[in-house]
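Side project, low priority. Logging it here so it doesn't get lost.
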Amino acid sequence: MTEEQAQRLRTQFGAGAAAYVTSAGHAGGEDLDCLLAWGRRLRPRRVLDVATGAGHTALAFAGLGAHITAFDLTEPMLSAARGFLAERGATDVRFVAGDVEALPFRAGAFDVVTCRIAAHHFVNVGLAVRQIAATIRPGGSLLVQDILGHDDGATAAFITEVERRRDPTHVRAYRVVEWTALLRGAGLTVMDEAVLSKERRWEEWTARTRMTPEARAALESLVRAAPSARREAFHFRIDGDRIEAFTDRMILLRADRD
């Protein structure tokens, strides 16, 4: 990861760590339930949660009785996760700070690696996936979830602009065909796949990244001025001048190491 992107991520997520602890979209939902169901069938003993954030995925997998390694670039986020998991009684967890593009773990160290709603921040996602794959034992699994890229170029460009204005650390979302190629290139074979919708409440979504009133007003103007087909692709709900919510599609994949 470039030092510039790393610093942006530390600034963005370090200051807002507490907001991710209380974020309903990160705390649970059909998406986390799906990943956990896959994990339950795999019965892992050692799990690495990459880009753990506030630790919600780590907590869910700790409930399976696995030893968890929670990994994140941002020390304040790891501190928030440590406090959150301790409050919830999860004790078999270690916390490690570092860069996903240079993971500090031995080859084959984990049965399962999880990475939830984070890959769109990775500058070199191919390198990150290869680094992750190397830490998985043969026959082990990567359980990954992220925003699903749109197949239409103009629609993809619109939502990428929305995402980047709200969060400048956003790089891009990937389509199913791109994810399949990335995983195959890292020696991983897709075994399960799901696409789910996840609603974003506008007030909470924009507040979590601490947008200034001016930046938020400019973003809302961009959304309202966009062609209706762009807004409809993401089910934007607008009441007068007020944006209430929109809906992301999430791609969830279980890929096994060859």
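Brief comment: The chain has a mean pLDDT of 94.
Revisit when time allows.
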